[in-house]
Predict the structure.
Amino acid sequence: MDKLTLRAEFESVMAAGIVARTPHFALHEQISTTANRWGAVVPKRWARRAVTRNLIKRQIYALGREQLTLLPNADRVIRLRKSFDVQNFVSASSGHLRSAVRTELHQLLKHCLAP
């Protein structure tokens, strides 16, 4: 799995539009013939602590590696579009937050796996 690195690549994929959403995430996808490439956009606006932003990005890229052989070739950007409630997730890197992010990301990728 490759990562999207250039701003122009992110903008190109995000301009293609949203193909799936969950309460906290949006999936942007652009069909590619070369390989599966992933990008994660986790704005400071929605995840204030660096620990939380890094946890979310790690979960996104880990999920991309797991689903690598199951998904068709495309460039994908997963964008955090709403913050997780600080009242429910007090710790910035708790196991509870990790599992909530992982569950929601699995729901998001069901769209890509469906024929």
Notes: The chain has three helices and five strands.
